[in-house]
Amino acid sequence: MQGAGLRQVAQRMRKTANGSGEGTMMRLLLHWLFWYLILGIVASGTASAEECSGTITAEEALRAEDARYAAQLANDFAAMERMFGSDLVYIRSVDGAVADKRAYIESMRSGTVKYRAMRRSDVRVRTYGLSRHPHRLL
Description:
The protein contains five helices and four strands; from the N terminus they run ααααββαββ. By secondary structure, the protein is an alpha+beta fold. It has a single domain, classed as Nuclear Transport Factor 2, Chain: A. About 5% of the residues have low confidence.
């Protein structure tokens, strides 16, 4: 299933490259890298980096996502430390560099990364075992 999604991305990127140029293709690539980051954060335990027990509702998952957005916009490093799982992997959209939780939070603390705005659009929440994952529809 994941392979099919990647094939669709590749097909869209080829169509974009043939149609309106490299700028649009880069935006599409950056868009997908951003959402893979989001998926990694959610999969790592957005609401808490602690052990998962019980279930959460779709509304709770979206509230946790909103709390993450708020923490990143406000540079609330303590909240990010609690929210992000220890196995977080962040792939920088500019050059593909990979950072772990510590390096990602440090990039915000140092000012290298600064979020000015974050918003959801076209989100559906799917259930996988004990966790729920918001994702964007294309």
